[in-house]
């Protein structure tokens, strides 16, 4: 999340497995692999996040909070990261409008 917020594509890719799967909201499309992680960072608007809840279930980390792109949108966001041996293997996130 820090890499995404800092718009650091290489840092984001470095914590992902080679075959990471990133599901975009709506389920219509998916990004794959380290290049998919880089692409997610490049296409994300500048935003500020505020994590309000952090939950760990085995190798899954769930973050809930507010994601805000100034002048564009504010959403309650749930990010779910599945990991294996310290690398992210699967990412999903959902949005619910906050404004």
Label the overall shape.
globular
Main sheet: which strands, in order across? 2-1-6-5-4-3
Structural class: alpha+beta
Q: What is the count of DSSP helices, taking H or I runs of 4+ residues?
A: 3
Walkthrough of the structure:
This protein is of the alpha+beta class and 99 residues long. It has one domain (2-97): Nuclear Transport Factor 2, Chain: A. The protein has helices spanning 2-6, 9-14, 33-43; strands spanning 16-23, 30-32, 48-57, 60-69, 73-84, 87-97. It has a six-stranded mixed sheet with strand order 2-1-6-5-4-3. Strand 3 (48-57) and strand 4 form a beta hairpin. The model has no long low-confidence stretch (mean pLDDT 89).
Write the layout of secondary structure elements.
Blueprint: H1 2-6, H2 9-14, E1 16-23, E2 30-32, H3 33-43, E3 48-57, E4 60-69, E5 73-84, E6 87-97
Parallel strand pairs: 1-6
Antiparallel strand pairs: 1-2, 3-4, 4-5, 5-6
TL;DR?
This protein is an alpha+beta fold and 99 residues long. The protein has helices at residues 2-6, 9-14, 33-43, and strands spanning 16-23, 30-32, 48-57, 60-69, 73-84, 87-97.
Key attributes of the depicted protein:
six-stranded mixed beta sheet; about 100 residues; Nuclear Transport Factor 2, Chain: A; alpha+beta
